[in-house]
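Our preliminary data section would be incomplete without showing what the modeling component actually yields. Below, a chain of 383 amino acids is followed by its predicted structure, encoded as tokens that our downstream tools consume directly.
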Amino acid sequence: MLLFTCPYVLSLSADRSIKFYSMGLISYLNHNNFRLHENPVMHPESADRLNAIDKAIAESNLLSTLVNVTPRTAQNADLCTIHSQSYIEHIEKSAHMAQSENKLIQLDGDTFMSPRTYEVAKLAAGASFTAIDSLEQDNISSAFVAVRPPGHHAMAQRQMGFCIFNNIALAADYARKHLGHKKVLIIDWDVHHGNGTQDIFYNDPEVFFISMHQYPHWPYKTGWLSEDGAGDGKGFNLNIPLPPGTGDKGHLMAWDSIVAPVSAEYKPDIILVSAGYDAHQSDYMSNQNVTTNGFGLLAGRLQNLAQSLDVKTACFLEGGYNTEALADSVVATLNALSKDAKDQKTKSEPELQPITDDQSPEELKSRLSLVQKHFAKYWQSLK
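Predicted structure:
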């Protein structure tokens, strides 16, 4: 059921009939059951992340802007659009073991199954479909999917990096097969490379994957600019490997010089975002030094891009492990998505977090120049 308060703008169409347009309504996907997935004590990915986001939203001025949408649970047939049947059976078997023994099952070095994880992961996957469906409503301009476990490291046949099913990949495939989108753009601003998403769509020109991430960083040996797609997908996988200490200015520089022009040239039907917040200056998973204000400005750039292309957006929660920084950054993102692009405030940009001494500005500029030169053979806007 959709529950919302709607600020409307009245307009007259060409035939003089009355039409209503909403100002920045966001469908918000969350569910109490996302807290039921458990990890070991002190594991960075915990239910505290969602609890902090809930609290921050409740204390914000966003409640009249959010449309609370209840996610549906994905079925095995839904998951098979991205994941192999053998992998799904492996996860299901692990779930039964966790349930029968009432304990955590370790799938790899940092990914665990608790007795309720399989159920929760299917709900998280189903939320991706529900979010895409919600964008079909005229009064919804964007969606935010606040789920766990996250997804962008999950591959077709294996779990990885806290991720069970690749939520954003499932959403991209659903948008194509069920809603007729021919060109899906995925932007990943998590500090870790979205290697699972890259692997799934590496040969696919209908899904353009752009990742801004710290490099070198985990996962190792993935995310360099030469990984640019294969077959028909050549040129449709664009990695922007950012040096440590890139900060707000560097991320916005990467967006303005590469992400925005290439995205505009691609002309997607829909934009999906792997919204990780572990590049935050207070997050111990990286040393990228992005501030809360920086994430708000990045989301403002996203809103400007979407409105200039006249497409809708859906953001999928990925990383972010300092709960206060995560919650504040999600609120900053939602605030930016609730505004018209022309109303985005840019006057704070001169006071952005400076690029730190971890890497010189010259190193950042060199990286961005390498990316531009490499992808200029695919994209005219980078020449």
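The chain has one domain: 24-382. Residues 128 and 333 are 18 Å apart (CA to CA). Preliminary results of this kind motivate Aim 1 of the renewal.
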